[in-house]
Amino acid sequence: MKNKRLRSAQKKGDHGRPNLTDFISRMPDDVLVMILSLLPIKGAVVTSSLSTRWRFVWRNLIQLNFDGTETLDDMANNEKLCDLEEAKYINQVNGVINSYNHPRVQVFRIRFDLDCSYSQDIGEWIQFALDKKVEKLELDLMDKSCSIRDPAENYEVTLPSSSAMVGQMQCLKNLFLKGVNLSKLTLNRILKNSPHLRTLYMYGSDLFPHIRVGGHDIKLKHFKMVCCSGIESISLYGFDLVSFTYFGPEVEFHLTDLPKLKELDIGEVSLGLENNVFSQISHCALYLQVLVLDMWAPQKSLDVNAIIKLPNVKKLMLVMGAEEDDSLLEFTSIAQACPSLETFSISLHWYSPMKRRRKVRHVAAPQLHQHLKLLEIIGYYGRISDLELAVYAIDNAVALKKIVIDPSCHAFGEDLTKDDCLKRQPAARSSAKRQLTPILPPGVDLVIL
User: Would you place residue 165 in the very low, low, confident or very high pLDDT band (cuts 50, 70, 90)?
Assistant: First the structure.
């Protein structure tokens, strides 16, 4: 009897518990694949050494995520690791795709700091993904800090002109490119040969002077360009674009015949609105519901008379430099041009906020905001200019329900580190509570993060 109990315990594993590994191994393949999909690809491949049951299970994964973020963290702290880790990463990706035999890949993601010296390998990875009818392709070839490298060092995508290539891109729905260059010819091939492409995101890419995207054969819904170089003008026309984001050097915009365009995010790292961006977006103003404007030096750039009517904008966000304690109330003129406004967000970027002693200015809007329910101020420090923005909403928004104050500033750099900002936040919270609590109307909630 004693030996029988011993054998029974051995079957159950240590301490009499069931053997979890054997239990999982008896599960159907589709369940095991679902479990492996939760692991990094490196860990999923390692399971092939557990037993013959696990040997080929990982090859049924349809999401291949080669995320090297943890390794990039180590490399940022030890430059000597760079060459070694780059070689290991290249070998890892090549090893997986050479052993992979599933007919389709839904997601293929590369996340590692790689420049044009690895063009052959990267090109083969792209071809592999297209051969597998990839739906979501991500090439993030930048370092951990997302700092922009010399454009000449970026990998440049090249696509052959062939009937086979057309078939390979039929399933592509989302394309994300960081630290990757595109020629005019390549961009056109991607857009024309990808009938299901809905999202295109480019970050840190070197492009060409005149971007033109248009025509009813373009199915793109979401287009985002951040910190891209080489551009002088962007023309978007004649297709069902829903959202467009641009942040980078000052360029000329031509946005016409875009009846589905609801979200527009424009940020130019020059002098903000001095090039009269309002006139350039006027053809789509009627359709917009969300508008984000990033102004680097707002006090030098706003022509109030140039502001156009934005009849359907429900959410407005203004991102502004706010180094000094100058009044920013003139920018409420943009909010006044939005009669349907429900959410007004203001993000104040500063490195060393200056405080001045002066009276709080009150501005009466020509027409009260009938629909404005939420005011959000990010980067609130307790200066008079900060307080004036909150007072404006309190004075002019008859439907106001909530004011959210976020004391964090996102303008991190050499002058202001993240730790510096964190040290300032308690004083900013205290100022916000002291300034706003006494003037808060009944029924309006004050939230200080």
Answer: low
Residues 6+ apart with CB under 8 A from 433: 446, 448
Question: For residue 211, with 0-12 CB atoms within 10 Å meaning exposed, 13-18 middle and 19 or more buried, which class applies?
Answer: buried
Q: Can you say whether residue 382 is alpha, beta or left, with left for phi > 0 and alpha for psi between -120 and 50 degrees?
A: left
Six-digit token pair at 375? 């005011």
Q: What count of residues does the chain have?
A: 449
The structure's pTM equals 0.84
The phi-psi region of residue 117 (left if phi > 0; otherwise alpha if psi is between -120 and 50; otherwise beta) is alpha
365-to-87, 330, 333, 377 alpha-carbon distances in Å? 62, 11, 8, 19
Q: Give the DSSP letter string of 66-108.
A: EE-HHHHHHHHH-GGGHHHHHHHHHHHHHHHHHH---S--SEE
Confidence of residue 311 (pLDDT cuts 50, 70, 90): very high
Cα 286 to Cα 261: distance, rounded to the nearest angstrom? 9
**What are the angstrom distances between the C-alpha of 215 and each of 5, 191, 210, 222, 251?**
76, 10, 16, 15, 22
The pair of three-digit structure tokens given for residue 45, joined into one six-digit string: 């491949």
Within the chain, what is the greatest distance between any pair of CA atoms?
96
160: buried, middle or exposed (CB in 10 Å: 19+, 13-18, 0-12)?
exposed
Dihedral of the CA atoms 296, 395, 361, 424 (nearest 10)?
Answer: -60
What is the DSSP secondary-structure string of 390-449?
Answer: HHHHHHHBTT--EEEEE------SSSS-HHHHHHHHHHHHHHHHHHHGGGPPTT-EEEE-
Q: Rounded distance, CA 362 to CA 395, Å?
A: 8
Could you report the per-residue pLDDT of 224-239, keeping only the tens digit for each?
A: 999 999 999 999 999 9
Instruction: Give the span between the Cα atoms of 128 and 133, in whole angstroms.
Output: 9
Secondary structure (3-state) at 30: helix
Provide the CA 67 distance to its chain's centre, in angstroms: 17
Phi, psi of 220 (to 5 degrees): -60, 135
